[in-house]
Amino acid sequence: MVRDDADRRTFFEAFGALAGPGIRSIKSSGGGDQIRTAPSLTEPQDTMTAILSERTRAQLALAEEHVRCENAHDLPGIMATFGHRAWYDDEPWGEHHEGPDAVHGYYKDLLTSLPDLHIDIVHCLAAENGVALEVRISGTHLGSWRGLPPTGRRVTFPLCGLYTFD
Description:
The protein is an alpha+beta fold. The protein has a single domain (about 5-165), classed as Nuclear Transport Factor 2, Chain: A (Roll). About 35% of the residues lie in helices and about 30% in strands. It has four helices and eight strands. It has helices at about 5-20, 55-70, 75-80, 100-115, and strands at about 25, 35, 45-50, 85-90, 95-100, 120-125, 130-140, 155-165. The chain has a four-stranded antiparallel sheet, with helices on both faces. Strand 4 and strand 5 form a beta hairpin.
């Protein structure tokens, strides 16, 4: 779990080292390929231009489209961003949703439990073999979730999503 900027730097440095050549730390804010050299949200960041492969660009665009559909609560749109071997692993809960029907059910429950679900992208790393998004999820708990009855409380929590592609 990333707790503060020092941990965030350590996480992103370790991720970059493990991913090998071609890893990019990208702040996704729409428009252009802006590379951020420092993953800190509070420190000034130098920007440089990078040349991303068409594959990496397409994967990044698909991950951004996925989040856009989540924010629009567009379940058919969300599902359209998954490949034919759709799966969603929720590691903290030990849940593994394999196949389009299971993934659809997961998202249907999520959107019911947090009808005002909103996801903000904090950081993005893109490489030839996938995309990692650090996000902040927020919403109001108005529906049952994992057996917990609705509380009516606002929730906000960080999440790291790893996207792999067919």
